[in-house]
Amino acid sequence: TLIAGKRILVTGAGGSIGSQLVKLIAGFGPAHLCLVENGEFNLWKIEQDLKALFPDVTCTPRLTDIRDANRLRQVFAESRPDLVFHAAALKHVPIVEANLGEGVMTNIIGTRNVADASLEAGVQAMVQVSTDKAVMPASAVGATKRVAEIYCQSLDLGQTGPRFMTVRFGNVL
């Protein structure tokens, strides 16, 4: 498979989508998982879940904010990922509407930082988790996620390095 034996980095690893993604990835036998999360409890929880469910999968938890480009580059240099799954985001519409600058910093600048670090590290691919709200955006969440999609799409055009892909999820329970 694409994942077996590979070094995988997941941003937002302790979030609602990221934690499920980590568990799915772990089931495919990666060589190593790097868990990037900015919430201490969420990072601890997903690490504990992995130890219980997949004791043979090695993982490195990294308390890291994707908005900090220097720290992110350091984590990439240490973890040397083959594949990156970018699930870190601010996604609650009313909260992002009330805190637009934070939404821009995480969803746009943070995604740019992850994509740039992926490019610099020479990963095989980066998969960005987006949202159906990015289609003809009517909210700050949709608009910021759409800008992030466009940035990643631009990196994927006309170059021979890492592939940059986006998947859009609808409402997730």
How would you summarize the topology of this molecule?
Blueprint: E1 7-11, H1 16-26, E2 32-37, H2 40-53, E3 59-63, H3 69-79, E4 83-86, H4 93-98, H5 100-121, E5 125-131, H6 140-156, E6 163-169
Parallel strand pairs: 1-2, 1-4, 2-3, 4-5, 5-6
Structure keywords:
173 residues; alpha/beta; 6-stranded parallel β-sheet; 6 strands
Descriptive account of the structure:
- 47% of the residues lie in helices and 20% in strands.
- The chain contains six helices and six strands.
- Helix 2 links the parallel strand 2 and strand 3 (59-63).
- Helix 5 (100-121) runs parallel beside helix 6 (140-156).
- The radius of gyration is 15 Å and the shape is globular.
- The two termini are 27 Å apart.
Low-confidence stretches: none
Q: What helical percentage do the residues reach?
A: 40-55%
The biggest beta sheet is recorded as:
6 strands, parallel
The count of β-strands is: 6
Between the first and last Cα atoms, what is the distance in angstroms? 27 Å
Shape: globular
Widest sheet: strand order? 3-2-1-4-5-6
Beta content: 15-25%
- How would you name the oligomeric state of the polypeptide chains in this document? single chain
From N to C, what is the helix and strand string? EHEHEHEHHEHE
Q: Radius of gyration, rounded?
A: 15 Å
Average pLDDT for all residues: 92
How many helices in DSSP terms?
A: 6
Structural class: alpha/beta
Would you summarize the structure shown here?
The protein is an alpha/beta fold. 47% of the residues lie in helices and 20% in strands.
